[in-house]
Amino acid sequence: MAINNLGSLYDSQGKLKEAEEMFQRAYTGFEKALGLDHPSTLSTVNNLGYLYYGQGKLKEAEEMYQRALAGFEKALGPDYTSTLDTINNFGLLYFDQGKLKKAEEIYQRALAGKENTLGPDHTSTLNTINNLGNLYREQGKLKKAEEVYWRVYAGYEKAL
Length: 160
Fold this sequence. Notes:
The chain has helices at about 1-10, 15-35, 40-55, 60-75, 80-95, 100-115, 125-140, 140-160. The chain is an all-alpha fold. Helix 5 runs antiparallel to helix 6 (about 100-115), helix 5 (about 80-95) runs parallel beside helix 7 and helix 7 packs antiparallel against helix 8 (about 140-160). About 40% of the residues are buried.
């Protein structure tokens, strides 16, 4: 667990090589000790995907997200927070690839699950709603984007 956390720390510091090394070590350790389908192993796979995404390695990120999502859905179910966070990560990936229709579908899926599981005003739910606002802005749906951003603003005011 600590090695995975070091990977996250290094990632946040921009030490990408060190982050990848830590995530790879954590993955190997979790895989040996807990198996491929254990949530800790899958979280490390998702973290690797997010690291690759941040580096612009979108193909590698997509592969990691696919592995993590399939495993989370099998191990934890479709509405578990780790599953929903990975779905949201797919939305970010598709957005950056210019696959806006697919990104919207994915964000809507993540949003429905988060509203059901966490509630409409949870910060994770609000982050996904904000991602939808960014998508609508990119699509030129400015009125819709504004409505979404106001919803996020109101939600954060309530949460904080």
